[in-house]
Amino acid sequence: xxxxxxxxxxxxxxxxxxxxxxxxxxxxxxxxxxxxxxxxxxxxxxxxxxxxxxxxxxxxxxxxxxxxxxxxxxxxxxxxxxxxxxxxxxxxxxxxxxxxxxxxxxxxxxxxxxxxxxxxxxxxxxxxxxxxxxxxxxxxxxxxxxxxxxxxxxxxxxxxxxxxxxxxxxxxxxxxxxxxxxxxxxxxxxxxxxxxxxxxxxxxxxxxxxxxxxxxxxxxxxxxxxxxxxxxxxxxxxxxxxxxxxxxxxxxxxxxxxxxxxxxxxxxxxxxxxxxxxxxxxxxxxxxxxxxxxxxxxxxxxxxxxxxxxxxxxxxxxxxxxxxxxxxxxxxxxxxxxxxxxxxxxxxxxxxxxxxxxxxxxxxxxxxxxxxxxxxxxxxxxxxxxxxxxxxxxxxxxxxxxxxxxxxxxxxxxxxxxxxxxxxxxxxxxxxxxxxxxxxxxxxxxxxxxxxxxxxxxxxxxxxxxxxxxxxxxxxxxxxxxxxxxxxxxxxxxxxxxxxxxxxxxxxxxxxxxxxxxxxxxxxxxxxxxxxxxxxxxxxxxxxxxxxxxxxxxxxxxxxxx
Amino acid sequence: xxxxxxxxxxxxxxxxxxxxxxxxxxxxxxxxxxxxxxxxxxxxxxxxxxxxxxxxxxxxxxxxxxxxxxx
Lengths: 562, 71
Ligand SMILES: Cc1cc2nc3c(=O)[nH]c(=O)nc-3n(C[C@H](O)[C@H](O)[C@H](O)COP(=O)(O)OP(=O)(O)OC[C@H]3O[C@@H](n4cnc5c(N)ncnc54)[C@H](O)[C@@H]3O)c2cc1C
Prior knowledge:
- The complex is a heterodimer of chains A (562) and B (71).
- Chain A is α/β, with parallel strands linked by helices and 562 residues long.
- Chain A has helices spanning 35-46, 71-80, 83-89, 126-139, 188-192, 257-260, 263-274, 320-339, 349-373, 378-391, 395-398, 467-482, 511-515, 541-551; strands at residues 24-31, 51-55, 68-70, 95-100, 103-109, 121-123, 143-147, 150-157, 160-167, 170-181, 197-201, 206-213, 220-225, 235-239, 244-250, 280-288, 291-295, 299-300, 303-305, 311-312, 441-442, 457-462, 487-492, 502-506, 522-526, 532-536.
- Chain A is built from 14 helices and 26 strands.
- In chain A, the strands form five sheets. In chain A, strands 1, 2, 7, 8, 9, 10, 18 and 19 form an eight-stranded mixed sheet that branches.
- In chain A, strand 14 (235-239) and strand 15 form a beta hairpin.
- In chain A, helix 1 runs parallel beside helix 4 (126-139), helix 1 runs parallel beside helix 8 and helix 2 (71-80) crosses helix 3 (83-89).
- The radius of gyration of chain A is 25 Å and the shape is globular.
- In chain A, 46% of the residues are buried.
- The model of chain A has no long low-confidence stretch (mean pLDDT 95).
- By secondary structure, chain B is mostly helical.
- Chain B is built from four helices and no strands.
- The mean pLDDT of chain B is 91.
- Chain B has one domain.
- The A-B interface holds A 365, 368, 371-372, 375-380, 383, 387, 389, 394-396, 398-400, 402, 405 and B 5-10, 13-14, 16-18, 20-21, 24-25, 27, 29, 32, 36, 59, 64.
- Flavin-adenine dinucleotide is lined by residues 31-37, 54-57, 61, 64-68, 126, 150-151, 182-184, 188, 208, 288, 307-308, 315, 318, 320-322, 324 of chain A.
């Protein structure tokens, strides 16, 4: 098959660990160099935690996998230092067209919301995403990537984990304090530990074909319900980088995957869809059955499951890799805080509670989209088809049409790490929410608020405050630093000399004040993963310090060590 | 005159649709039919206004011509 992309080949390296008589010990070992494992390595590296990443392969993702990377993913990658090349290589579309049978029933235009650094999403093949991540990992001295090192045995208890790694030079052992398991949806490690990921399999098959289009084709997303060239089934067409287009053909449960994958069977379908004159070549085709499932707990002693090994979704709604990265950024700062002695080990348990919530939300959205596409019985098909038919004329019906919603990050409701609001704020943004971007000037000159947040605690404040309290805030930051807790103060629209812990920003467009409800004075405490921990109208240093400690889990019951 | 609202008005469209599908899960055709009838009556009472109900009835009646001759 022709290809628009050549997979990089990363060399096998022989590590001195392999020659040691005793198993060498590392603080953190990561199994799997997919999006989850690579992101975890970058997150920890930026906080000064060394990791070893073991991958059984020597390249990035092969074939048709993720293409839709959502805003939050791009923001996280931007913080890790690999977002820019993704933004440059990725493509966007604004115009979406929905067809039902012969006819286009409606179209929509996703006009980008202004004043955000990154767009709502981009389409980019997973191999590019991973390639840019690997490049960034190679720049970070805290990360050691070991290609063609396959983990074949894992054991763990409450004090650490021990693993066996198989290479062309034979087996070797490692021990670690924390093992991050990012070995993908089928996770042999999960199985070997007797753990399960549970949920539902959708009784349907999808042919996913990537084609290279020879000539320009409009950059729009087209979705057919009951496609005329593919009766009774849905079809999705959207654009990726390099003039590659992704086509998803719903096949139904009875389809024969081997037959469907053959070019002679794909060609007539694509011709019926694009017209006979259009020139294209098939790059990749595979048949999938999708499932939504998760583990009951993402933590097993010192093994932490991240990405698809922990939770898997059907791709409609693009919450797989996107959800993986939100999970990673949730775990990263907590693990660093525990390893570096800032927080009790009990903080780690909140990775599970907060991300179980995220995983449930992602599974819910993916399931709803899949159910809409594949009605389960006669009456739901009648409703589905009626919704589509009515969407032609009636805007209300369009809100019910679901061919996959944009992936959005969840808000950690009811997390023990947040301090509940005691003052009035009017926005949806609240304790537990990921921060929203806004244009700013000053500071590091990046021009964006999110580039000033994360990796440490931040206090964001705007408005008039007592000068004595501002000085005391600086002092608090110094005291916290002595305890190993980094906190940077972002003062908005109050020009002055940068303090040891203070950065001055200007909200020159007034967007920040609006998005954070800071037209009247207010203070936000923001976690290292850019989620809001607490906020007040007043600057009360005792409350602020208590909220920092709360966000670090100092109030959480220590699990009794077995 | 009161107007039937045809603009989006669901507070959570996806949740509504999922709940509707759940309601019909594992029901016989007769049960589904009865569920739909009950639902229409409940919602019609909630709407109340005869003018609006008549507009809704009129639109609902414009089904595809091929369906009209189904039996
Ligand atoms: C058709 C399709 C479309 C999709 N579309 C989207 C989308 O648009 N947006 C989105 O966000 N997601 C999408 N996804 C989901 C996305 O591909 C996954 O969620 C993502 O790859 C999960 O990343 P991961 O790192 O957890 O696992 P993986 O990407 O599976 O990586 C696992 C890694 O672990 C390595 N490994 C496995 N076992 C071992 C071992 N024993 N020792 C060492 N290494 C090991 C593997 O070689 C691999 O590199 C799609 C998936 C499919 C199939």
